[in-house]
Protein backbone atom coordinates (compact mmCIF):
# COMPACT_ATOMS: atom_id res chain seq x y z
CA UNK A 1 0.00 0.00 0.00
CA UNK A 2 1.15 3.52 -0.75
CA UNK A 3 2.80 5.02 2.38
CA UNK A 4 0.92 8.30 1.99
CA UNK A 5 -2.46 6.54 1.96
CA UNK A 6 -1.42 4.25 4.79
CA UNK A 7 -0.53 7.20 7.00
CA UNK A 8 -3.38 9.47 5.93
CA UNK A 9 -5.74 10.80 8.65
CA UNK A 10 -8.80 13.01 8.12
CA UNK A 11 -9.73 15.64 10.67
CA UNK A 12 -13.01 17.54 10.73
CA UNK A 13 -12.62 21.07 12.13
CA UNK A 14 -9.64 23.46 12.22
CA UNK A 15 -10.06 24.67 15.79
CA UNK A 16 -7.41 24.24 18.53
CA UNK A 17 -8.25 20.54 19.08
CA UNK A 18 -8.17 19.58 15.40
CA UNK A 19 -5.06 21.62 14.63
CA UNK A 20 -3.21 20.18 17.65
CA UNK A 21 -4.04 16.67 16.48
CA UNK A 22 -2.75 17.55 13.00
CA UNK A 23 0.51 18.99 14.36
CA UNK A 24 1.25 15.93 16.51
CA UNK A 25 0.34 13.48 13.75
CA UNK A 26 2.47 15.34 11.19
CA UNK A 27 5.46 15.29 13.52
CA UNK A 28 5.15 11.49 13.62
CA UNK A 29 5.09 11.01 9.85
CA UNK A 30 1.34 11.08 9.22
CA UNK A 31 -0.38 13.05 6.48
CA UNK A 32 -3.37 14.84 8.05
CA UNK A 33 -6.06 16.51 5.97
CA UNK A 34 -8.26 18.96 7.87
CA UNK A 35 -11.72 19.82 6.50
CA UNK A 36 -12.97 23.19 7.69
CA UNK A 37 -16.43 24.53 6.79
CA UNK A 38 -15.32 28.17 7.13
CA UNK A 39 -13.09 30.06 4.68
CA UNK A 40 -10.35 30.52 7.33
CA UNK A 41 -9.40 29.37 10.81
CA UNK A 42 -10.90 31.09 13.82
CA UNK A 43 -13.96 32.41 11.98
CA UNK A 44 -16.21 31.55 14.93
CA UNK A 45 -14.17 33.97 17.04
CA UNK A 46 -13.90 37.75 16.73
CA UNK A 47 -10.34 38.72 17.56
CA UNK A 48 -11.28 38.72 21.24
CA UNK A 49 -8.94 37.96 24.11
CA UNK A 50 -9.38 34.72 26.03
CA UNK A 51 -7.54 33.10 28.90
CA UNK A 52 -5.42 29.97 28.70
CA UNK A 53 -5.73 28.85 32.30
CA UNK A 54 -2.56 28.05 34.23
CA UNK A 55 -3.87 26.70 37.51
CA UNK A 56 -5.25 23.18 37.09
CA UNK A 57 -1.90 21.42 36.60
CA UNK A 58 1.54 21.41 38.18
CA UNK A 59 3.30 22.49 34.99
CA UNK A 60 3.12 25.95 33.50
CA UNK A 61 0.78 25.71 30.51
CA UNK A 62 3.44 27.10 28.13
CA UNK A 63 5.85 24.37 29.22
CA UNK A 64 3.09 21.79 28.77
CA UNK A 65 2.36 23.04 25.25
CA UNK A 66 6.00 22.60 24.30
CA UNK A 67 6.04 19.10 25.75
CA UNK A 68 3.00 18.27 23.62
CA UNK A 69 4.84 19.51 20.54
CA UNK A 70 3.14 22.92 20.22
CA UNK A 71 5.26 26.02 19.59
CA UNK A 72 4.16 29.35 21.03
CA UNK A 73 4.10 31.35 17.78
CA UNK A 74 1.07 33.39 18.83
CA UNK A 75 0.26 36.15 21.30
CA UNK A 76 0.61 34.57 24.75
CA UNK A 77 0.97 37.07 27.58
CA UNK A 78 1.22 35.99 31.26
CA UNK A 79 -1.11 37.77 33.70
CA UNK A 80 -0.17 37.62 37.38
CA UNK A 81 -2.70 40.02 38.88
CA UNK A 82 -6.03 41.75 38.48
CA UNK A 83 -9.21 42.97 40.16
CA UNK A 84 -12.09 40.84 41.36
CA UNK A 85 -15.57 42.14 42.10
CA UNK A 86 -18.43 40.43 43.95
CA UNK A 87 -21.74 41.65 45.43
CA UNK A 88 -21.65 43.75 48.61
CA UNK A 89 -17.87 43.84 49.00
CA UNK A 90 -15.23 46.29 47.80
CA UNK A 91 -13.15 45.43 44.77
CA UNK A 92 -10.30 43.12 45.74
CA UNK A 93 -6.82 42.78 44.28
CA UNK A 94 -5.39 39.45 43.10
CA UNK A 95 -1.65 38.84 42.92
CA UNK A 96 -0.05 35.51 42.08
CA UNK A 97 3.48 34.10 42.21
CA UNK A 98 2.93 32.29 38.90
CA UNK A 99 0.78 33.42 35.95
CA UNK A 100 -2.90 32.88 36.71
CA UNK A 101 -3.56 32.66 32.98
CA UNK A 102 -2.00 33.51 29.64
CA UNK A 103 -3.86 35.99 27.49
CA UNK A 104 -4.34 34.74 23.93
CA UNK A 105 -6.19 36.18 20.96
CA UNK A 106 -8.79 34.14 19.07
CA UNK A 107 -9.80 34.48 15.43
CA UNK A 108 -8.01 34.78 12.12
CA UNK A 109 -5.46 37.52 12.92
CA UNK A 110 -1.76 36.82 12.38
CA UNK A 111 -1.00 36.74 16.11
CA UNK A 112 -4.04 34.66 17.12
CA UNK A 113 -3.86 31.21 18.69
CA UNK A 114 -5.90 29.80 15.80
CA UNK A 115 -3.61 31.19 13.10
CA UNK A 116 -0.47 30.18 14.99
CA UNK A 117 -1.61 26.57 15.21
CA UNK A 118 -2.62 26.63 11.53
CA UNK A 119 0.83 27.84 10.49
CA UNK A 120 2.50 25.07 12.49
CA UNK A 121 0.24 22.39 10.98
CA UNK A 122 0.75 23.60 7.41
CA UNK A 123 4.53 23.94 7.88
CA UNK A 124 4.66 20.29 8.97
CA UNK A 125 2.78 19.15 5.89
CA UNK A 126 -0.86 19.06 6.98
CA UNK A 127 -3.39 20.01 4.32
CA UNK A 128 -6.34 22.25 5.20
CA UNK A 129 -9.36 22.18 2.89
CA UNK A 130 -11.53 25.25 3.56
CA UNK A 131 -15.21 25.74 2.74
CA UNK A 132 -15.85 22.04 2.82
CA UNK A 133 -17.16 19.39 5.16
CA UNK A 134 -16.54 15.66 4.82
CA UNK A 135 -19.73 13.63 4.51
CA UNK A 136 -18.40 10.10 4.87
CA UNK A 137 -15.06 8.41 5.33
CA UNK A 138 -13.86 4.80 5.41
CA UNK A 139 -10.63 5.74 7.21
CA UNK A 140 -10.19 6.65 10.86
CA UNK A 141 -11.29 10.24 11.39
CA UNK A 142 -10.92 12.81 14.18
CA UNK A 143 -14.06 14.91 14.82
CA UNK A 144 -13.22 18.39 16.11
CA UNK A 145 -16.24 20.39 14.99
CA UNK A 146 -16.77 22.33 18.21
CA UNK A 147 -19.93 22.82 20.30
CA UNK A 148 -23.34 21.59 19.16
CA UNK A 149 -25.55 23.43 21.64
CA UNK A 150 -25.36 26.29 24.13
CA UNK A 151 -24.95 25.31 27.77
CA UNK A 152 -23.57 28.79 28.35
CA UNK A 153 -23.22 31.84 26.14
CA UNK A 154 -20.79 34.75 25.99
CA UNK A 155 -21.67 38.25 24.76
CA UNK A 156 -19.13 41.02 24.59
CA UNK A 157 -17.20 43.67 22.72
CA UNK A 158 -13.68 44.20 21.49
CA UNK A 159 -12.44 47.78 21.46
CA UNK A 160 -9.53 50.20 21.33
CA UNK A 161 -8.53 51.91 24.55
CA UNK A 162 -5.88 54.08 26.16
CA UNK A 163 -6.12 52.15 29.43
CA UNK A 164 -3.03 50.30 30.63
CA UNK A 165 -2.84 46.51 30.55
CA UNK A 166 -5.15 44.96 33.11
CA UNK A 167 -7.56 42.17 33.97
CA UNK A 168 -10.78 42.27 35.98
CA UNK A 169 -13.47 39.70 36.74
CA UNK A 170 -16.99 40.10 38.14
CA UNK A 171 -19.17 37.56 39.94
CA UNK A 172 -22.67 39.03 40.03
CA UNK A 173 -25.98 37.51 38.91
CA UNK A 174 -27.19 40.94 37.74
CA UNK A 175 -24.36 40.98 35.21
CA UNK A 176 -23.57 37.31 34.55
CA UNK A 177 -26.21 34.97 36.04
CA UNK A 178 -24.45 31.91 37.52
CA UNK A 179 -21.39 32.80 35.44
CA UNK A 180 -18.89 35.64 35.42
CA UNK A 181 -17.88 38.70 33.43
CA UNK A 182 -14.43 39.91 32.55
CA UNK A 183 -12.34 42.74 31.16
CA UNK A 184 -8.96 42.11 29.51
CA UNK A 185 -6.72 44.84 28.11
CA UNK A 186 -3.38 44.45 26.36
CA UNK A 187 -1.45 47.08 24.41
CA UNK A 188 -4.37 49.38 23.61
CA UNK A 189 -6.86 46.65 22.76
CA UNK A 190 -9.56 45.28 25.05
CA UNK A 191 -12.18 42.60 25.42
CA UNK A 192 -15.20 42.88 27.71
CA UNK A 193 -17.72 40.06 27.99
CA UNK A 194 -20.35 38.44 30.16
CA UNK A 195 -20.55 34.64 30.33
CA UNK A 196 -24.12 33.58 31.12
CA UNK A 197 -25.37 30.19 32.31
CA UNK A 198 -29.00 31.09 33.02
CA UNK A 199 -31.78 33.30 31.64
CA UNK A 200 -30.46 33.53 28.08
CA UNK A 201 -33.52 35.51 26.94
CA UNK A 202 -32.32 38.55 28.91
CA UNK A 203 -28.81 38.61 27.50
CA UNK A 204 -29.11 42.23 26.30
CA UNK A 205 -29.98 43.38 29.81
CA UNK A 206 -26.98 41.64 31.37
CA UNK A 207 -24.61 42.98 28.75
CA UNK A 208 -25.90 46.52 29.33
CA UNK A 209 -25.37 46.06 33.08
CA UNK A 210 -21.81 44.91 32.38
CA UNK A 211 -20.91 47.95 30.29
CA UNK A 212 -22.50 50.30 32.83
CA UNK A 213 -20.57 48.67 35.67
CA UNK A 214 -17.16 49.15 34.08
CA UNK A 215 -18.01 52.67 32.93
CA UNK A 216 -19.33 53.69 36.35
CA UNK A 217 -16.20 52.30 37.99
CA UNK A 218 -14.12 54.24 35.44
CA UNK A 219 -12.16 51.17 34.44
CA UNK A 220 -11.59 52.01 30.81
CA UNK A 221 -12.33 54.22 27.83
CA UNK A 222 -13.94 52.42 24.92
CA UNK A 223 -13.43 53.31 21.25
CA UNK A 224 -14.27 51.52 18.01
CA UNK A 225 -16.20 48.79 19.77
CA UNK A 226 -17.31 45.65 17.94
CA UNK A 227 -19.86 43.21 19.29
CA UNK A 228 -19.29 39.47 19.40
CA UNK A 229 -20.98 36.40 20.81
CA UNK A 230 -20.30 32.72 21.31
CA UNK A 231 -21.38 29.66 23.22
CA UNK A 232 -19.98 26.60 24.93
CA UNK A 233 -21.08 23.00 25.30
CA UNK A 234 -20.43 20.54 28.13
CA UNK A 235 -21.35 16.90 28.55
CA UNK A 236 -19.81 13.65 29.74
CA UNK A 237 -20.42 10.38 27.93
CA UNK A 238 -18.94 6.94 28.38
CA UNK A 239 -17.10 6.78 25.07
CA UNK A 240 -15.71 9.22 22.53
CA UNK A 241 -14.49 6.59 20.10
CA UNK A 242 -17.28 5.33 17.82
CA UNK A 243 -16.10 2.79 15.24
CA UNK A 244 -13.54 4.88 13.29
CA UNK A 245 -14.63 8.26 14.69
CA UNK A 246 -12.64 9.89 17.49
CA UNK A 247 -14.21 12.94 19.14
CA UNK A 248 -12.10 15.73 20.65
CA UNK A 249 -12.62 19.18 22.16
CA UNK A 250 -16.20 20.33 22.58
CA UNK A 251 -17.34 17.71 20.06
CA UNK A 252 -16.56 15.33 22.93
CA UNK A 253 -18.05 17.64 25.59
CA UNK A 254 -14.58 18.60 26.86
CA UNK A 255 -15.16 21.94 28.50
CA UNK A 256 -14.74 23.54 31.91
CA UNK A 257 -18.33 23.66 33.10
CA UNK A 258 -17.52 26.05 35.93
CA UNK A 259 -16.23 29.03 33.93
CA UNK A 260 -15.64 27.87 30.37
CA UNK A 261 -11.83 27.74 30.34
CA UNK A 262 -11.80 24.96 27.78
CA UNK A 263 -8.71 25.69 25.69
CA UNK A 264 -6.50 23.37 27.74
CA UNK A 265 -9.01 20.53 27.30
CA UNK A 266 -9.21 21.15 23.56
CA UNK A 267 -5.46 21.06 23.06
CA UNK A 268 -4.84 18.09 25.37
CA UNK A 269 -7.64 16.06 23.77
CA UNK A 270 -6.27 16.75 20.29
CA UNK A 271 -2.88 15.50 21.47
CA UNK A 272 -4.40 12.37 23.07
CA UNK A 273 -6.36 11.54 19.91
CA UNK A 274 -3.21 11.80 17.82
CA UNK A 275 -1.21 9.66 20.23
CA UNK A 276 -3.92 6.99 20.29
CA UNK A 277 -3.49 6.67 16.51
CA UNK A 278 0.31 6.84 16.58
CA UNK A 279 0.71 4.25 19.36
CA UNK A 280 -2.41 2.16 18.67
CA UNK A 281 -3.65 2.81 22.21
CA UNK A 282 -7.25 3.14 23.43
CA UNK A 283 -8.40 6.75 23.12
CA UNK A 284 -11.17 6.24 25.66
CA UNK A 285 -8.59 5.04 28.18
CA UNK A 286 -6.40 8.07 27.56
CA UNK A 287 -9.06 10.77 27.90
CA UNK A 288 -10.69 9.08 30.88
CA UNK A 289 -7.35 9.13 32.65
CA UNK A 290 -6.30 12.67 31.72
CA UNK A 291 -9.52 14.62 31.17
CA UNK A 292 -12.52 12.89 32.74
CA UNK A 293 -11.58 13.60 36.41
CA UNK A 294 -11.39 17.30 35.57
CA UNK A 295 -14.73 17.22 33.75
CA UNK A 296 -16.43 15.54 36.70
CA UNK A 297 -14.91 18.04 39.12
CA UNK A 298 -16.10 20.96 36.99
CA UNK A 299 -19.60 19.48 37.04
CA UNK A 300 -19.54 19.48 40.86
CA UNK A 301 -18.10 23.02 40.86
CA UNK A 302 -21.01 24.13 38.66
CA UNK A 303 -23.46 22.56 41.11
CA UNK A 304 -21.85 24.31 44.09
CA UNK A 305 -21.59 27.77 42.54
CA UNK A 306 -25.24 27.70 41.52
CA UNK A 307 -26.27 26.53 44.98
CA UNK A 308 -24.44 29.17 47.06
CA UNK A 309 -25.08 32.31 44.96
CA UNK A 310 -23.79 35.64 46.31
CA UNK A 311 -22.27 34.02 49.40
CA UNK A 312 -20.26 31.73 47.14
CA UNK A 313 -19.13 34.63 44.95
CA UNK A 314 -17.87 36.58 47.98
CA UNK A 315 -16.13 33.47 49.32
CA UNK A 316 -14.33 32.86 46.01
CA UNK A 317 -13.33 36.53 45.68
CA UNK A 318 -11.84 36.62 49.18
CA UNK A 319 -10.00 33.34 48.68
CA UNK A 320 -8.49 34.65 45.45
CA UNK A 321 -7.29 37.80 47.18
CA UNK A 322 -6.02 36.43 50.49
CA UNK A 323 -3.28 34.18 49.15
CA UNK A 324 -2.00 32.61 45.96
CA UNK A 325 -5.06 32.23 43.70
CA UNK A 326 -3.44 29.45 41.65
CA UNK A 327 -3.18 27.23 44.73
CA UNK A 328 -6.84 27.78 45.58
CA UNK A 329 -7.94 27.14 42.02
CA UNK A 330 -5.80 24.03 41.64
CA UNK A 331 -7.35 22.48 44.75
CA UNK A 332 -10.83 23.18 43.47
CA UNK A 333 -10.27 22.14 39.86
CA UNK A 334 -8.91 18.73 40.81
CA UNK A 335 -10.77 15.72 42.26
CA UNK A 336 -11.18 15.36 46.01
CA UNK A 337 -12.99 13.01 48.38
CA UNK A 338 -15.68 15.62 49.03
CA UNK A 339 -16.33 16.21 45.34
CA UNK A 340 -16.49 12.50 44.60
CA UNK A 341 -19.28 12.27 47.18
CA UNK A 342 -21.16 15.14 45.51
CA UNK A 343 -20.63 13.85 41.97
CA UNK A 344 -23.76 11.61 41.79
CA UNK A 345 -25.90 14.55 42.98
CA UNK A 346 -24.41 16.90 40.37
CA UNK A 347 -24.76 14.27 37.63
CA UNK A 348 -28.42 13.83 38.48
CA UNK A 349 -29.07 17.57 38.33
CA UNK A 350 -27.30 17.97 34.98
CA UNK A 351 -28.08 14.55 33.53
CA UNK A 352 -29.03 16.11 30.18
CA UNK A 353 -25.35 16.92 29.78
CA UNK A 354 -24.41 13.23 29.69
CA UNK A 355 -26.24 12.64 26.43
CA UNK A 356 -25.67 13.99 22.97
CA UNK A 357 -26.67 12.58 19.62
CA UNK A 358 -23.75 11.26 17.58
Essential attributes:
FAD/NAD(P)-binding domain; 10 helices; D-Amino Acid Oxidase, Chain A, domain 2; 6-stranded mixed sheet; alpha/beta; globular; 35% helix; 358 residues; single chain; 7-stranded mixed sheet
Question: What's a concise summary of this model?
Answer:
This protein is of the alpha/beta class and 358 residues long. It is 35% helix and 23% strand. A hairpin with a 2-residue loop joins strand 15 (241-242) and strand 16.
Give structural notes.
With 358 residues, the protein is α/β, with parallel strands linked by helices. It folds into three domains: 3-149 and 233-292, 3-Layer(bba) Sandwich (FAD/NAD(P)-binding domain), CATH 3.50.50; 152-232, D-Amino Acid Oxidase, Chain A, domain 2; 296-353, no CATH class. It is 35% helix and 23% strand. The protein is built from ten helices and 16 strands. It has helices spanning 3-6, 16-27, 61-68, 113-123, 203-216, 263-279, 283-290, 292-322, 325-333, 337-349, and strands at 8-12, 31-36, 49-53, 77-79, 81-85, 92-95, 101-105, 127-130, 141-143, 152-160, 166-170, 180-186, 189-196, 223-232, 241-242, 245-247. The strands form three sheets. The chain has a seven-stranded mixed beta sheet, sandwiched between helices. It has a six-stranded mixed beta sheet with strand order 8-2-1-9-16-15. It has a three-stranded antiparallel beta sheet with strand order 3-7-4, with no helix packed on it. α2 packs parallel to α6, α6 (263-279) runs antiparallel to α7 and α8 (292-322) runs antiparallel to α9. The longest helix is centred in the C-terminal third of the chain and has 31 residues, at 292-322. It is globular and about 60 Å long. The two termini are 32 Å apart. The mean pLDDT is 93.
Amino acid sequence: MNLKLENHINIVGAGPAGLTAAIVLAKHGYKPTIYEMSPYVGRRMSGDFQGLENWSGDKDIVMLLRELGIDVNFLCIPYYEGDICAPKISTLKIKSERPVFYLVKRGGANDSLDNGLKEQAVYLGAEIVFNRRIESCEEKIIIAEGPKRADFIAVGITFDTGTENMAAVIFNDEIAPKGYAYLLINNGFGTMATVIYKDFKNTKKYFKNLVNFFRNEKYTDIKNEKRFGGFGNFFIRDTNAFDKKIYVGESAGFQDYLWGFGLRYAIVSGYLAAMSIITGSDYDYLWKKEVKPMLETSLVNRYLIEKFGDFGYRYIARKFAEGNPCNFLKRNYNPSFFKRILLPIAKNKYKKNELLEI
